[in-house]
Amino acid sequence: MTAEKILVAQGGGPTAVINQSLVGVVLEARRHASVQRVYGARHGVRGIVNEDFVDLTQETSHNLELVAQTPSSALGSTRDKPDAKYCHEIFKVLQAHGITHFFYIGGNDSSDTVRIVAEEAAAANYGLRCIHIPKTIDNDLVENDHTPGFPSAARFVAQAFAGANLDNAALPGVYLGVVMGRHAGFLTAASALGKKFADDGPHLIYLPERVFELERFLADVKTMHERHGRCVIAVSEGIHDAAGTPILSRLAGDLERDAHGNVQLSGTGALADLLCEEIKNKLGIKRVRGDTFGYLQRSFIGCVSDVDQREAREVGEKAVQFAFHGDRDGSVAIKRRGFYSVDYELLPLAAVAGKTRVMEDEFITPEGTDVTDAFRMYLRPLLGSGMPDAFRLRPNRVAKVLKR
Amino acid sequence: MTAEKILVAQGGGPTAVINQSLVGVVLEARRHASVQRVYGARHGVRGIVNEDFVDLTQETSHNLELVAQTPSSALGSTRDKPDAKYCHEIFKVLQAHGITHFFYIGGNDSSDTVRIVAEEAAAANYGLRCIHIPKTIDNDLVENDHTPGFPSAARFVAQAFAGANLDNAALPGVYLGVVMGRHAGFLTAASALGKKFADDGPHLIYLPERVFELERFLADVKTMHERHGRCVIAVSEGIHDAAGTPILSRLAGDLERDAHGNVQLSGTGALADLLCEEIKNKLGIKRVRGDTFGYLQRSFIGCVSDVDQREAREVGEKAVQFAFHGDRDGSVAIKRRGFYSVDYELLPLAAVAGKTRVMEDEFITPEGTDVTDAFRMYLRPLLGSGMPDAFRLRPNRVAKVLKR
After folding, report:
1. Could you give the ipTM of this predicted complex?
2. pLDDT by residue (tens digit) across B258-289?
3. A145, B164, B331, B341: which has the fewest C-beta neighbours closer than 10 Å?
4. Which regions of chain A carry the CATH code 3.40.50.460?
């Protein structure tokens, strides 16, 4: 039995449960007598090329369990997207440290990194087992029922809209919330899970899977505002026109041309503000408020799905089991079994790497501004237990005395 | 024993616990055999002048308890700030419906409304007991240790910054979060309660109680960014220059003059975006992200302080007890006793009405960019039980092989 050395790293945007996967890897690897060291690379692939490692063999199980419950990437992350040369550097460092097993927790860019590193190792005839562990709040990995991190972010978005809807009902007007997700609308669509009563918001949902037309948007808002006396809207940051141009740059571009100047409008609040201005100016509605959920939706501490926690832990554990009991590299994928249970499979890296899933057509209504019951059935079990519920007073009207 | 008729209403911005106060009034009033009816006015004072009442005598205790746990104003709210004429209309309606007890849950504007209505009733020699019940996330009512609604909003802000700090540590750069509170900085200051380790953010806090100077702000950010390799900043929406001009209108104004146009920059995300632009342009820091917490901080469902819930319920109950066992109108106030317990007093309406509390000097450090331990001691018990906690991996560094 050879002395095995594990390296684990975290890449891309942090999630509420990415540390569950990290700890799943570490604790499962430490169970193996043949494992000499479990290293963690700080700040993802950048930490690998910089040889910035911590020894997780010397961390207590107790603290690891506490870290598992802490959101964001405990090892640090990176936005570096390695090219072939960068991957070669990664491989040289793994080789120098005698790493035998490489686990990388991340999205589809990260899986592509794992794929290239695995190819480097094979070409050099160096024995390295490479496993990609899925993670992304965007839920845009192909071949996965869903990805760890998405359910907790979806829960935040659903709770945020459930609350915003109550606020908007108390002080009527238009409320617009911009949600993360440049290409996939899953997280924006999760806003629909905040609805309970038929007239609850969000009354309109705009997804990057559909073309956004400003005139139709304004007409939709007008209709809903007249119907309900108020309107709650969920908008994906990735909405775009028929040519694929993001609406933000189109609207901001117009303003720049109007002003003949270099007004800087880039920034996270701009899309919400610009759409609110359109509603105010074109529809003459006075109370129009826009929020951009920004980093809260992926980092807020204390809003997590227990199902997401459990599955994020399991993909980490399974990654180690696939690595030690299997005979090939791959990407761990979540497959749904029944309503509701999951199982895990090891897919070839090429099946996942660099591909982007978007929302299936069956999840979006024909008008394109709402989700279907199929989507609600899909998402609800992921949100986990203890979802807060909203209650209303019943309308026992009192007869008027003065103005009958 | 005369047949008594209660009217209760909710005014101003909704909070996470304002329905606790409503239900506190209703259930306590319904215990009295002399109480014939408990009415609720929909959408605050506007619902009163419109005679838009619901009969809460016909609501089940069970549903009332569920509504109590639901955020936002279940009766609906209003931004109307009644003048003397409006208050006269209110009084006429109360008189027409034979209302004997008027309870209004709201901030300092609402307490002023109660004061004027009480004067109208006295002038007309009409027997009306008027009680103001405190509520505001701004925590800006004088003579109150704190106000119901503030602790839950403060908890949201603390949790948001605890998470944003972890996110910023994983992907370093500058993160800036804009928090509600035009005149009082309590809610922005609550961001400090998200800190655990000495180098955690927020590293800088900007409050409306201190003059904001852009040059000093940039110098502060530069210093912190150099010290920690990153910087998390909490900014109150109400920051202003020495002349009292809000920074948002100053920065937006500059841009308008530069552009010789009518660029619309009003909107909730603008201040964060503008400050981020300044940091990017003047300090040359690349990764700068700004969030505006917006309505989430007061409406998010599922983030509540149990201490706040309890106290909000009690101010409602106490209001009815003061009304039935006392002999004067007034405003219910929270007084702190020991560490930590509270008691309730009935203050004269004029002692609270229309006045604004800001943060005490002892709560702000001499540099003006952080809070003191006195503030932490003040706020911590209000946040309640079960605050999420963040944990870190310990730094067991691995020796470098290639780059020693």
Report:
1. 0.95
2. 333 333 333 468 899 889 999 999 999 999 99
3. B341
4. 150-301+361-383
